[in-house]
Amino acid sequence: MIDPQTLDTPLNQLSDDQFKTFFDDFMGEKGIREQSVVKGRVIGINDDWITVDISYKAEGQIPTSEFRNPEGGIDIKVGDEIDVFLDAMEEEDGTLVLSKEKADLMKAWDEISKAVQANQVVKGTVVARVKGGLQVDIGVKAFLPGSQVDLRPVKNLDKLIGEVFDFKIIKFNPRRGNIVLSRRELLEQERQEKREETVGRLQIGAIMMGIVKNITDYGAFIDLGGIDGLLHITDMSYGRLNHPSEMFEVGASIEVKVLKFDPDTQRVSLGYKQIKPDPWEDAQFKYPVGSIVRGKVVSIPDYGAFIELEDGIEGLVHITEMTWNKRIKHPSKLAAVGDVAEAKVLGIDVENKRISLGLKQLEANPWDIVEQQYPVGSIVRGKVRNITDFGIFVGIDEGIDGLVHVSDLSWGSHSRHPADKYHKGDEVEARVLSIDKDNERFSLGMKQLTEDPWYTVHSRYFLGQVIEGTVVHRTDFGVFVEIEDGVEGLVHLSELAGGQGEDWFARYPDAAKIKAEIIHIDSHDRKVSLSERGALERASGDVDGYMARQGETGARLGDVMGDLTKKLKGKRVEE
């Protein structure tokens, strides 16, 4: 306090201690102290300095730069009252050291201190990325750790620079100028409040709004407000969906239906397609059997093609219903994913959600007109499409192949394998033998193009004639030799020139040429008996041996032919 006695004493007669006491008490009454914030009035402005009167014997100056706004202008004018920081009183030259920035800083620290004591939220602007987190301006510079930025780790902190958020002060040390903030605590508190509110509204069947929070291969997590629910990919659409990202993106607001909710674990299962009616409910009325439908090919497995008729309804065109042509090996030869196609409804199973479709039914069945185009007995021409052990297939028309059975290739009873004479792509002629439209079978014959050579065999061959033929077949009783196309003769073991040694098979390979004498002809039973021995004896001039063997042959010819007939009949039955 000021000593009243000192007021009657001139100031210049006071001791130093007395003057200091007087000055401090006097300035304290006016609220003016060093290192404190005081009120002042702007009395002058120029490019470099702002002059401020704080009601003291001297005036103070503050650099104009402390008052410039971001645009470079000055937001004060002469006469404005402002808060300034009295840094020092220079008694020697009578000047005051003032600062506007320090005043703002002191005020900010004071407000922050009050906010800490009251557990209040402060607002700040993210200004920079620093090691371990972000720097935030809340009036003073504060540190926001990366772990406290959000509920989940933020991969790109730079994108938050310039953003304004509310924060909670979790550490405050004014002496060290250390302030640590948290945004996560506020978000967790807000989330908990929302969770409690959301749980109160959650019930099976409820329709709720949510935000897509995360997308995975198997679904999407939807934030319902403080609690997340899983929207599985199977509950997103009635139709085909390869990945959830085809329908949704993170941050999108969507309407979902609560399918399941466990209050104990707070797990929520959501549905999106369940908000809309199931398209299969009226499918049998929209797609009756026999109707023509239109859709897009969405999948092509080995066994057919799936056509999407609408979202949630697909029909299968089995490969057997794609074309009348049975030579198609894979559906991709006829259709591609993305194609728009028309098909006929062949069947519908609403319970199992299946629709059978057909493409070939939109075209005429070639078998319906095959009898008119190719009557029995007519001659057709086509290319060999396939060769098997039992015959060859000849392409007659698109989707129609005729079979020439091996028995109808030649009049010969021991025809060679079809591949020995025919190749794929060969153009051939054949006669129509029969047509089975129901079983889609078309039988052809090539030998029927010519007359049966056995009808006139006696006009071309006679007993004792030596012919040259080709070995076409070997049995345990002899060798069959082709004399001409369709006519074969048998050289019995006893008539082979080399005898019946163990290696006789090796001496008569297939396609080998052999000369033999005709010793018997039976056109009725289609048999010719040959003798290689006889041909050799005639060629060597052995008349006696020839004549002797003729008698021997005549004596046993009946027995030989009888045995041969039995064996041939048995052989034909086996074949």
Question: Any overview of this molecule?
Answer:
With 575 residues, the protein is of the alpha+beta class. The protein has seven domains: 1-30; 36-118, Nucleic acid-binding proteins (OB fold (Dihydrolipoamide Acetyltransferase, E2P)); 119-187, OB fold (Dihydrolipoamide Acetyltransferase, E2P) (Beta Barrel); 202-275, OB fold (Dihydrolipoamide Acetyltransferase, E2P) (Beta Barrel); 279-362, Nucleic acid-binding proteins (OB fold (Dihydrolipoamide Acetyltransferase, E2P), Beta Barrel), CATH 2.40.50.140; 366-449, Beta Barrel (OB fold (Dihydrolipoamide Acetyltransferase, E2P)), CATH 2.40.50; 457-574, OB fold (Dihydrolipoamide Acetyltransferase, E2P) (Beta Barrel), CATH 2.40.50.140. 18% of the residues lie in helices and 37% in strands. The chain contains seven helices and 30 strands. The chain has a five-stranded mixed barrel with strand order 1-2-3-5-4. A five-stranded antiparallel sheet has the order 8-7-6-9-10. A hairpin with a 2-residue loop joins strand 22 (391-397) and strand 23.
SSE layout:
Blueprint: H1 16-30, E1 36-45, E2 49-53, E3 60-63, E4 81-90, E5 95-99, H2 100-118, E6 121-130, E7 133-137, E8 141-145, E9 164-173, E10 178-182, H3 184-201, E11 207-215, E12 219-223, E13 228-232, E14 253-262, E15 267-271, H4 283-286, E16 292-299, E17 304-310, E18 313-318, E19 340-349, E20 354-358, H5 366-373, E21 379-388, E22 391-397, E23 400-405, E24 427-436, E25 441-445, E26 466-475, E27 478-484, E28 487-492, E29 513-522, E30 527-531, H6 532-540, H7 543-574
Parallel strand pairs: 3-5, 13-15, 18-20, 23-25, 28-30
Antiparallel strand pairs: 1-2, 1-4, 2-3, 4-5, 6-7, 6-9, 7-8, 9-10, 11-12, 11-14, 12-13, 14-15, 16-17, 16-19, 17-18, 19-20, 21-22, 21-24, 22-23, 24-25, 26-27, 26-29, 27-28, 29-30
